[in-house]
Every structure is written in C-alpha cells, then in structure tokens.
C-alpha cells in the first residue's frame, strides 16, 4: 500500500516496476539462482535454529555438552522461565529499552537529516563527515571508548562535570548505578545508530523534488506542515524500513551491553539477548538459554508481524 | 573487470573453505616418530616470565620427545573457554583451573581420571585445599598445582616515612596506619570495590559465611548481621584509597596500579610482589608483607585459600605426554622453585620446610593458619561467573542500602547453588 | 549571514561535536604521553604527540596475525555473501516465479536472527564436523550473518536499473547471462561495493563466535577477541588500549570514506522500490 501511495504522490525517478513475465525462459533458472542462498540458510541458519529448538526441550548442561546424550524433558524449560518473575521483568525491560532507543534514534535522525538538508554546502559536508566518523567506529572500539570516557578516576566526563562545579562527580562511579549505566548504554547506542539513519533519510529527502515544497510555500505552509504534508508521506516506506531495521538492531543489541555491564548492576541492563547469553554461558544452563532465545525470536516476530504482513502484500502486488 | 577479480577471490575463498573443511578430519598426530606437541594452558599471573623460561628450557632439554606449547590465559571469561575446550575433540592437553572451579569440570565427565597417578606423585601428602576440590566421588581429577592466600603487600619506605615502624596487628591499628599513609597523592591502600575474596575474609572474621547449607539446600548468607559487619569494615578500609568501587582486582590489574608507585598497600598473594618488580624494578627492595590483621592481635584475619589444580581433558590426544609435563611441574624440584620464586605454598606439605625464610611466605603462612574455602559445591563456579557478591559490594560502597543489596545477592546465590537439584 | 543560518550552523556544530568527540578523544588519547593521560587536568589538544602507544599495541604478541585473520575472515565472508546474494537478488528482482513472496519474507526474517542464541548449537555443529579452531567456519558464519541484508540491498539496486537495457541487449543477440554481465553488472558494481561495507563491518566486529569457536589455536584469533582482552593485556595502559582501538577502526574508516555516499542512496533506492 505504501508503495502504491508513493507512486501516486511522487514522480518516481525510475518508472515502472521491472517487467518480469518473460516468455520461453527455462522455469528452473530462478530456483537455481536462489539455491545457494537457500542451501546456506538451511545449513547455517535453520539447522542451528532447529538444534537450538531441540536443546530447549532437553536437559542440557555441561555434562550433556561434553558427553552428549541429553534427555528430553518436554516443556520443563519453558515452564521454568515462564513462571520466573525475573524473565517477565527482563521482557518488559527489553521492550522499554527498544522503545526508548528507537524513538530517540528516529526523532534525532529525522531532525539531523532535515538539518543537513537546510545547511550550506561546507557546513553540510563537515557535519556529514562527522557523522560518518561516528558511524565508522566499530562497536567494540566505541564501547571501549565509552568506558574510558566515563571511567571513574581519569574519565573526561567526570572531569568536565567537576570543572563545571558539580563536585559530587569527583571519582563518581557511573557503572555502579543501574540507571546511569542504562542511560550510558542508551546514549551509546543512539550515538552509534543516528548517523546511519540520518544519512539514509537525508539521501531520501534529496530525492523529493524541490518544486513540491516551493508550491507548498506559496500556499503559506510552514516547515512543520511541510514535513507533515509532503516529506513524511512521500518517504513513508523509507521511515518504515529504517524503523524496522532499528527495531531489529536495538532489540538484538548484545555486545554493547555485555562488554559494558554484563546486564548489571543488579539486572538494570539485562535484556533478553543478554539474559539468554548469561544463563547459557555463566550458569551453563544451555537448555534454559535456548528456550529464552526461542521466545526472543518469537517476540521479535510478533513485534514486526505488521511489517511483514505489509511486506508480503506488497510483494504480491508487484 | 572488478567483477572478475572479485569472483576469482571469492572462488578462492570458497575452495579454501571446502579444502580446510576436508583437511580437518585427518589427524596430524598420527605420526609416531618425532616429538609430540602438547598444549598447556596456564592462567595469567600463575607463573612469572622468568620461571616459565627456566622451566621450559629445562623441560626441553630433559624430554626431547615432548614439545611444549604454553599459552597464558586471561581469567576473564575463562569458564566458558574451558568448557568449550573440554567439549571439543582436540582439547589442550593440560589446563590450570582455579580450585573453586575444578569441581564442576570434574563432575562434567570431560576430565581424565588421574587416580592411578596419585601414588607416583606422593599424593597422600598433598595439601587438602587443593586435593579436596580436585577429587570428585572418590576419583582424583585435579592434580594440586600451587596454593596461596592473600597478605597485605606494602611499601616499607612509605610506612617508614609516615613513622610506622611495626606492621599493624589489629583492625584498628590497620585503619590508623592506612589513614596515615593516605596523604600526599599516595593512596593508603588500593582496594578495588569488588575484591570478594578479601570481603570473604572479613566476613569469616565476624563468624559469618557467604552461603550456608541447610539439609541439601544452600542459602546465600550475605544478609546476616555478621556478613554485613564484614562489609562495613570493607567499606571503611576501602575508602582510604582510590580503588575503583565498580571493578575488581583484575580490571585494571592491581599490580600495575601498584607499580606506578602511588600506592602504599594492596591485598594480594605474596607472588604479586614479583609482578610489581617486573613492571617497576625501582620498587625492588621497598616491598614488605604482613598478614591481613584480624579483630584481635593474637589471631590474624581469616583468608581464602586460593590456588590451582592441573587437569587433563578427556579429549587430549596426548595424555601420556601431558602427564610427563604434570609430573615435572607438580614434582618436588619445580614445586620448590615455583614456591620460592612466586611465593606460593607448594602442593605437598613436606615441601613447605624448604621454602621458609622468605618474608612474604612467612606472612602467608601466618595467615594460612586461619585459611578457609568458598562453599563446597560444584555450582559455586556458577556463582562466581556472574558474581552477585561483587554487585553487592559496589552497591554498598556507592551508598546503597546494605540489607537490600545483600538480600538481592542472596537470592541469586541461593538460586545458583540449588540449580539443577 | 542571516540569523536563521547562524542558528542552524551553531546547531550543526553542536551535533558535529557530539558525533565526533568520542572518536576524537580515542585518537587523542592514543597519541598522548602516559603522563598526560594520567594528569588530573586533561588536555583537549594534541600538544605532545607520541607514537609509543601505537608501538606498544603493534608489538603486542600476535597483533599482526590477529589483524590478518580478521581481514581474511571478513573479506572472504563478504565476498561469498556478495556472490550468493547477487544471484538471489537477480532472481527476485528480474524473474517471476512461484514462492518469490515467501522467499523475500524469509530473507527478511533471517535478518532478525539473534545470533548469540545460536552459539551453542553452532559450537556443537562445528565440533561434530571438525570445524572448531578453523577460520573457514567463522567465514561461513559471517557469510550467513551478512547475506540477508546484502540480498535486500542488492535487490534495491537492481530494481533501480531499468530492465529495458537488458532486453535491448538480448535483442542484439546477447544471452541472458551476457546481458547481465555486460549491461547490468557495470551499473550494479557501485551497489555491490557499498553493500559489502555493511558485511565487512559486521564481520570485522564479530566477537562471540570468534571467541567460542577458536579455542586452542590462539594464533587463529581475530582482532575483536584480542581487543576485548586488552584491558587485561595492557593493564591500566589506556593509551595503548586506545591506540589498539584506533588501529581497529582504521580499515573500516578508510572503506567508509570511499563508499559512504553510495550506501545510503542504495538503501534509499531499496526502500523506495519496496
């Protein structure tokens, strides 16, 4: 639907969806072309997922990992996690974590994209260069840097705060408090994610013909109305895609949290992927970890179900 | 053009993949002639570079049929790594494991039973703190490697400058002395907030424990008045320095912090002095040791008896060569050398007489009289892996409510120790 | 300048500073003498530049072989993904066949895989097929991690190329493959390059599998695993740590500078065409 709308409103640069029905093609070709993908997925994705599913119905600890011969225990593992209050609080936290991050990312990157669009040439290039720099830094390096920035003794953040007169931040241990650790991780993820989203949105904004804005301006529309009436509707599929990608990426965030806090202090930053990893790798309950990760996949699918339905419908129309 | 080079490279990558996949199954160890290479994992800080070189040179000269490949592992995340190794088909041949963790590996079935070597190694004389954890259901899986307990390592020059001539013997004296040297840009003591072995000692001093067994169920005991009193003292002494409240002694490595020369005391095994001097030779003759002070002068503070065992994974393809290595390292000659150069307690009681006279080991021996162990359960390693005690410490040190923090930690300890029962 | 422009520029500078500061601080720390790093008052400008931290990092045991391993694994994984994705994307974008919808949705779903959850099954599979301690296993995993995104993006690029061009070439006597190679491929090349960027970053960054699947052969480790242990390796040496992180970032940054513009427009194209 979104695509149909887009093609109505925007004079798309590339005209029609590619013609497909060709006569006299060997019918086998398309399947041969996707065969490597399907085979790869079957062996490296679906097969491990099935193994994971099987483990989630077994009693599977260190001994079973080493010696094999795990017993099936039915739905015991699922019952164990579903009756655990901790699991539900982790689920809630994961959704809150995803929502906070994604909202911040979407709002900020839209604003930054519009800002880039409004800037003069030099300033624009400077800002884009800065964003690229922040985007290019590998997650692990960024995580290390943030630990260094917020380090309690020599960290620059504490120094700046003390210099500004907040004496209580002398030697303040940021990672000792749940809320501040959570906040730092959010800042870090937003910082890492905005560049991609903003630059992509900006690239999309440039494809909207300027004449539409000009005529709207003549009608007396302000910048907010213009965004609501023109930019957003035209770029809706774009927003949809980025939203979907960010939801997936944030929901799955693991390295950032694990390296910085391992889900702590307490459970303050414990989200589903971290929880599954923690249970499996620290408590060596691979069975529970498998069950949690299967639930994670299921939850993420439900969250994105609307999007997939949309996708499926669009693909059908083409 | 680009495509062609891309494609060629990718095809190359593909064939690399498949070739390697096929090549993997052939055993390269089939050749019976030539020296056998064994992989040995030792933990970071368990031996000094010096000792390792002396040992490997001697080993190479003596056993030309075995080639030694020693890898030093980080403590951080070692549990998952060892399990990964035990479950693999081609594991390292000898692994050093901490004595609090050896039980779970022995119970897993991935470790070779070495009971028949016990006599050969004079195992009747082994010290209990290492032999016990290495024994599971009557079979000896872990071979005692070395033991050590913590003492206070201090800077004699800084103490002298502050007018302190005799090391403190009671907690009060200790606090007073530490406060005195905590001046002029020097830290009185560098005690990271999450050194839970030190906290354990303070708790034992008060008569408490980390967890208690009731019937066959375990229960976390940090919330008891004794444990909270221990934590209270930890907080007092920790405040007399700049140890990070949210980190442990490995991050950053505390010997490195000490080596920078701005720290008057730290709590570590005496062998740490070796590592400090290695990092900063200027401190060579300035280091002294005293047992962790207790509540009264007649009894030093309780300490955790730490140490390591050596295990041979079932998946090792050279168990005999592995044993050759263990026999050397756990044998008299190198045990005495190791104990002397690293200031450890040797693995056999009879050897202790050969390593007296050193200030560090004397202080350690005094403390060892009051040595204790962590709760004896194969699940204890799981507690240490996601250590709730450390979070408890950080919370209290940063001003949290001790009782509430203890209750939260106790819940996790209780769950972990009873898991799988 | 008009006041509005000035305000915009000031905001832009603020955003710029926020985006760049952590990176700047990392590189600055890497070049600072240790004494300055540990000074009570940090300096915000490079006054005394030193290369000692870089030599510490570079001379650390095995740095170069970890570097080489990382590059090898990342590049071969990405190349593999590009080739396989190219075929699939062509099939999806140009041909009509039964099950196409399902395939596309499957690719999208594949993108959601929480990879950390597959550690244990993957370990078991690798062990049972004698692929532990082998870089090709990592290559295969990175290939699969990057494949779905690569397909989605490449399809976007393909859709942006009018099929008329190929049809015309076919009228001129080319077969379908020739038409693809001579006409579509040159147009697609920039897309291929930019798509590879994402894959490269993913693979270059990956830690969990590299940590678990490389057990005994320590010289087969990759850079992220080494990087994660270096707060231990270097103790309190933040200078060397930051130098190592800088070196870790460098190749990604270089590739980025070359390819960045094409990536974003590629994603944009992919989205606009559904």
TrEMBL record, chain A:
It is a multi-pass membrane protein. The chain crosses the membrane at residues 28-50, 95-116, 128-150, 182-205, 226-251, 288-308. One of its GO terms (cellular component) is plasma membrane. Residues 91-309 form the ABC transmembrane type-1 domain. Pfam families: BPD_transp_1 (PF00528). One of its GO terms (biological process) is transmembrane transport. Residues 1-11 have a biased composition (Low complexity). Keywords: Cell membrane, Membrane, Transmembrane, Transmembrane helix, Transport. Belongs to the binding-protein-dependent transport system permease family. This is N,N'-diacetylchitobiose transport system permease protein. It comes from Kribbella sandramycini. The lineage of its organism: Bacteria, Bacillati, Actinomycetota, Actinomycetes, Propionibacteriales.
From TrEMBL, chain B:
One of its GO terms (biological process) is maltose transport. Transmembrane segments: none annotated. It holds the Pfam family SBP_bac_1. One of its GO terms (cellular component) is ATP-binding cassette (ABC) transporter complex, substrate-binding subunit-containing. It comes from the Bacteria. PROSITE patterns: PROKAR_LIPOPROTEIN. Keywords: Signal, Transport. Gene3D superfamilies: Periplasmic binding protein-like II. GO terms for molecular function: maltose binding. Residues 1-20 form the signal peptide. InterPro entries: SBP (IPR006059). Belongs to the bacterial solute-binding protein 1 family. This is Extracellular solute-binding protein. It comes from Kribbella sandramycini.
From TrEMBL, chain C:
GO terms for biological process: transmembrane transport. It is a multi-pass membrane protein. Gene3D superfamilies: MetI-like (1.10.3720.10). Keywords: Cell membrane, Membrane, Transmembrane, Transmembrane helix, Transport. GO terms for cellular component: plasma membrane. InterPro entries: BP-dep_ABC_trans_perm, MetI-like, MetI-like_sf. The chain crosses the membrane at residues 7-27, 71-90, 102-125, 137-158, 183-204, 238-259. Residues 67-259 form the ABC transmembrane type-1 domain. Its main location: membrane. It is found in: Cell membrane. Belongs to the binding-protein-dependent transport system permease family. This is Carbohydrate ABC transporter permease. The lineage of its organism: Bacteria, Bacillati, Actinomycetota, Actinomycetes, Propionibacteriales.
């Amino acid at each position: 639907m979104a695509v149909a709308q887009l093609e109505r409103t925007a004079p798309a640069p590339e005209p029609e969806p590619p013609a497909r029905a060709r006569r006299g093609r060997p019918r086998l070709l398309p399947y041969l072309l996707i065969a490597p993908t399907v085979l790869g997925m079957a062996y490296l994705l679906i097969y491990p997922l099935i193994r994971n599913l099987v483990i989630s119905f077994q009693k599977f600890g260190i001994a079973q990992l080493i010696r094999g011969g795990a017993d099936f225990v039915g739905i015991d593992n699922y019952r164990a996690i579903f009756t655990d209050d901790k699991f539900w609080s982790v689920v809630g936290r994961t959704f809150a974590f995803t929502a906070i991050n994604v909202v911040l990312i979407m709002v900020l990157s839209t604003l930054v994209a519009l800002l880039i669009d409004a800037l003069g040439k030099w300033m624009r290039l400077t800002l884009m260069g800065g964003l690229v720099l922040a985007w290019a830094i590998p997650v692990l390096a960024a995580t290390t840097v943030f630990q260094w920035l917020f380090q309690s003794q020599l960290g620059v953040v504490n120094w700046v705060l003390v210099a500004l007169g907040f004496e209580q931040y002398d030697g303040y241990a940021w990672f000792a408090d749940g809320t501040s650790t959570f906040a730092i991780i959010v800042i870090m993820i937003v910082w890492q994610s905005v560049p991609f989203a903003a630059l992509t949105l900006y690239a999309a904004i440039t494809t909207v013909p300027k004449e539409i804005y000009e005529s709207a301006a003549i009608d007396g529309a302000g910048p907010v109305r213009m965004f609501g009436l023109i930019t957003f509707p035209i770029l809706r599929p774009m927003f949809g895609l980025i939203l979907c990608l960010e939801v997936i990426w944030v929901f799955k965030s693991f390295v950032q949290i694990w390296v910085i806090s391992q889900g702590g202090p307490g459970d303050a930053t414990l989200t589903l992927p971290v929880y599954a990893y923690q249970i499996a790798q620290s408590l060596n309950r691979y069975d529970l970890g498998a069950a949690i990760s299967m639930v994670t996949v299921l939850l993420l699918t439900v969250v994105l179900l609307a999007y997939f339905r949309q996708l499926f419908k669009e693909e059908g129309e083409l | 053009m680009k495509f062609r080079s891309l494609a060629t490279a990718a095809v190359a990558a593909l064939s690399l993949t498949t070739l390697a996949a096929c090549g993997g199954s052939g055993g390269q160890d089939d050749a019976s002639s030539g020296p056998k290479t064994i992989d040995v994992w030792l933990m970071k800080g368990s031996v000094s570079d010096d000792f390792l070189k002396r040992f490997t040179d001697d080993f190479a000269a003596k056993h030309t049929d075995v080639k030694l490949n020693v890898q030093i592992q980080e403590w951080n995340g070692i549990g998952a790594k060892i399990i990964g190794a035990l479950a693999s088909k081609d594991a390292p041949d000898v692994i050093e494991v901490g004595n609090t963790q050896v039980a779970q590996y022995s119970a897993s079935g991935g470790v070779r039973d070495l009971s028949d070597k016990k006599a050969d190694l004079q195992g009747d004389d082994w010290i209990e703190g290492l032999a016990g954890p290495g024994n599971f259901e009557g079979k000896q899986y872990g071979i005692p490697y070395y033991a050590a307990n913590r003492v206070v390592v201090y800077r004699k020059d800084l103490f002298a400058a502050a007018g302190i001539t005799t090391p403190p013997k009671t907690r009060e004296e200790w606090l007073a002395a530490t406060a005195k040297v905590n001046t002029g840009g020097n830290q009185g003591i560098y005690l990271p907030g999450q050194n839970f072995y030190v906290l354990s000692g303070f708790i034992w001093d008060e008569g408490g424990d980390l967890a208690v067994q009731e019937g066959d169920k375990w229960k976390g005991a940090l919330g008891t008045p004794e444990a909270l009193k221990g934590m209270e003292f930890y907080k007092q002494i920790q405040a007399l320095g700049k140890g990070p409240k949210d980190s442990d002694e490995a991050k950053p490595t505390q010997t490195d912090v000490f080596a920078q020369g701005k720290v008057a005391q730290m709590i570590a095994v005496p062998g740490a002095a070796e590592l400090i001097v290695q990092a900063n030779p200027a401190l060579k003759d300035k280091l002294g040791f005293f047992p962790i002070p207790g509540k009264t002068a007649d009894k030093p503070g309780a300490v955790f008896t730490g140490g390591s065992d050596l295990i041979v994974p079932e998946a090792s393809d050279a168990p005999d060569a592995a044993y050759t290595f263990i026999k050397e390292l756990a044998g008299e000659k190198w045990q005495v050398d190791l104990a002397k150069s690293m200031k450890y307690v040797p693995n056999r009681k009879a050897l202790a007489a050969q390593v007296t006279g050193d200030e560090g080991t004397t202080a350690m021996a005094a403390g060892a009289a009051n040595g204790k162990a962590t709760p004896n359960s194969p699940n204890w390693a799981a507690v240490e892996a996601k250590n709730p005690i450390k979070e408890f410490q950080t919370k209290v040190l940063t001003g949290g409510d001790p009782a509430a923090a203890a209750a939260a930690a106790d819940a996790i300890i209780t769950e972990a120790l009873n898991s799988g029962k | 300048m008009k006041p509005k422009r000035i305000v915009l520029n000031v905001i832009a500078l603020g955003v710029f500073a926020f985006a760049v500061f952590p990176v700047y601080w990392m590189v600055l720390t890497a070049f600072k003498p240790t004494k300055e790093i540990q000074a009570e008052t940090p300096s915000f400008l490079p006054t005394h530049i030193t290369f000692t931290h870089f030599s510490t990092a570079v001379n650390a045991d095995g740095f170069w072989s970890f570097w080489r391993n990382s590059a090898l694994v990342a590049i071969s994984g990405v190349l593999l993904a590009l080739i396989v994705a190219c075929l699939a994307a062509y099939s999806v974008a140009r041909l009509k066949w039964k099950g196409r919808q399902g395939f596309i949705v499957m690719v999208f779903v594949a993108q959601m895989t929480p990879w950390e959850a597959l550690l244990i099954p993957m370990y078991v599979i690798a062990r049972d097929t004698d692929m532990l301690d082998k870089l090709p296993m990592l290559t295969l995993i990175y290939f699969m991690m990057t494949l779905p995104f690569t397909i989605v993006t490449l399809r976007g690029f393909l859709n942006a190329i009018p099929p008329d061009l190929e049809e015309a070439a076919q009228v001129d006597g080319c077969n379908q493959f020739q038409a693809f190679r001579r006409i579509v491929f040159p147009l697609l090349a920039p897309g291929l390059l930019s798509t590879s960027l994402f894959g490269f970053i993913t693979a270059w960054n990956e830690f969990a599998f590299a940590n678990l699947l490389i057990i005994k052969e320590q010289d087969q480790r990759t850079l992220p695993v080494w990087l994660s242990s270096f707060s231990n390796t270097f103790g309190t040496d933040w200078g060397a740590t930051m130098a190592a992180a800088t070196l870790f970032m460098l190749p990604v940054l270089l590739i980025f500078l070359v390819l960045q513009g094409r990536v974003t427009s590629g994603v944009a194209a992919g989205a606009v065409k559904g």
